[in-house]
Amino acid sequence: MTAVQTASHPLTNDIGDSYWLPFTAMRQFRSNPMMFAGAEGMHYIAADGRRILDAMAGLWCVNAGHAQPRIVEAIREAAGRLDFVSSFKMSHPGTFELADRLANVAPEGLNHVFFTNSGSESVDTALKIARGYHRARGDAGRTKLIGRAKGYHGMGFGGLSVGGIGRHKRDFGPLLPDVAHLALPYDRSMAFSQGQPSTGAGYADELEALLQINDPATVAAVIVEPVIGSGGVYPPPVGYLDRLRAICSRHGILLIFDEVITGFGRLGRTFASQALGVTPDIITCAKGMTNGAVPMGGVIVSDAVFDAFMAGPPEVIELFHGYTYSGHPLACAAGLATLNVYDELGLFERAAAMAPKWEEALHGLKGEPHIADIRNIGILGVVELTPRAGEAGARGSQVAQACYEDGVLVRASGDLVVLSPPLIIDEDQMGQIVDAIRSAVRQLR
Ligand SMILES: Cc1ncc(COP(=O)(O)O)c(C=O)c1O
Questions:
Q1: Average pLDDT, the chain
Q2: pLDDT at residue 132 tops 50
């Protein structure tokens, strides 16, 4: 591979003025643009031809590794066969097949799939379905939504409202009214837990307290990521999700698991719900659904939720919601090929088998300078650095930069070094990631 070549931008540092990147310091990016020319398996090919080990699976999505040949081929074939068909009052066979396949691998009782194009759309769809469900049952007073501190549910106004990262919301209010948040189920006594903290299930009881303030009969849904992802990789304390489930059931409130990151093998099963033994009423997913190769998301709902919508006159649209690209033929082809690849390569079983090695590798960093905590579950992890006084985030970005120079792509989110490699990772590559972080933190001041 050579440097990126395009007609108008022949040099990697000649990137023009037009493109506004998401979640990026534009002016800083311009001074040192990180550009990729290709990708294969565990690696990106940088614009300068270097092979970079991808410790983030793109952005928590390329679970089967980059440019997976069977997925690439399926997309190629689909593009030439049926470029587009609306999903409004018509469809194509791929949507039905993919929905059936997803229902088959989803937790028991979650049998109906609504297609979207992203995690954000999945979350907003799920929140609307939750409110619509109560209304369809004659309980229209249930409109309140409960999220959680540090939750990330995408960038739509719905997801932003239930999300729990203050900086994401600050510039864009007012958001949805009638939203409350649970606290983060974490305290420093849990630092360096390996996997799920053994204490902390009691944090779930805060939901009961919130419901007494808000009147449980006005609450539509509680939405949480089973494992907080973008907010800092916080595995749930043992028993915590079970308690949330029990409280929601007791009060007739829907429980939504946002599995945009945890879906498709991260925790060694199709969904974290299955790995952790707690079944929600609604699952949102995206990312690993197509291995990141074509944008797609989904909302998988229980029979009870679906059936509530199906009670009216059959000629009336039950859910006034959808997107032009819902169930796009290319995305369905990618989704079906992706599920086949996960199955045929046994990638979820592999993730489960590799998780203890991942845990051991990451926790081998304990005791290195500036490390405040290391958290892990499945093939997910984070190394939390102590912020340098007056320069929050500086150590995180220095570690990410040093790792990159060392040939490893990690994601810095403030002073968190976030890790979510493809599930095809081997032990040597785990070692390479950990070695890069070790050497980077030793250079920090
Ligand atoms: C848990 C969760 N929900 C929703 C989203 C939003 O997904 P998207 O960026 O595809 O809209 C993300 C993205 O990282 C996520 O992690």
A1: 96
A2: yes
The answer to whether residue 230 scores a pLDDT higher than 70 is yes
pLDDT mean over 339-349: 98
Whether 306 lines ligand 1, by a CB cut-off of 6 Å, is no
Q: Whose alpha carbon is nearest atom 8 of ligand 1?
A: 119
Q: Domain coordinates of the chain in residue numbers?
A: 26-64+346-443, 72-344
Measure the CA–CA gap between 223 and 147, rounded to whole angstroms: 5
Ligand 1 atom at minimal distance to the Cα of residue 121: 11
* Residue 15 CB coordination number (10 Å): 15
Say which residues have a Cβ less than 8 Å from residue 272's Cβ, sequence separation at least 6: 226, 227, 257, 259, 262, 263, 266, 378
Atom of ligand 1 at shortest range from CA of 286 = 10
CA of 258 from ligand 1 middle (Å) equals 8
What atom of ligand 1 comes closest to residue 259's alpha carbon? 1
In the chain, the N- to C-terminal Cα span, in Å, equals 36
| CB 234 within 8 Å of CB 227 | yes
* Pocket flag, ligand 1, residue 229 (CB < 6 Å): yes
Contact 235 CB / ligand 1 (< 6 Å): no
Q: How far is the CA of 118 from the centre of ligand 1 (A)?
A: 7
**Per-residue pLDDT at 117 exceeds 90:** yes
pLDDT at 11: 45
Q: What is the pTM of this model?
A: 0.97
CATH tag for 72-344 (out of 3.40.190.10, 3.50.50.60, 3.30.365.10, 3.40.640.10): 3.40.640.10
Q: Which CATH number fits domain 26-64+346-443: 3.40.630.30, 3.90.1150.10, 2.60.40.2890, 3.40.1190.20?
A: 3.90.1150.10
Q: Which atom of ligand 1 is nearest to the CA of 151?
A: 1
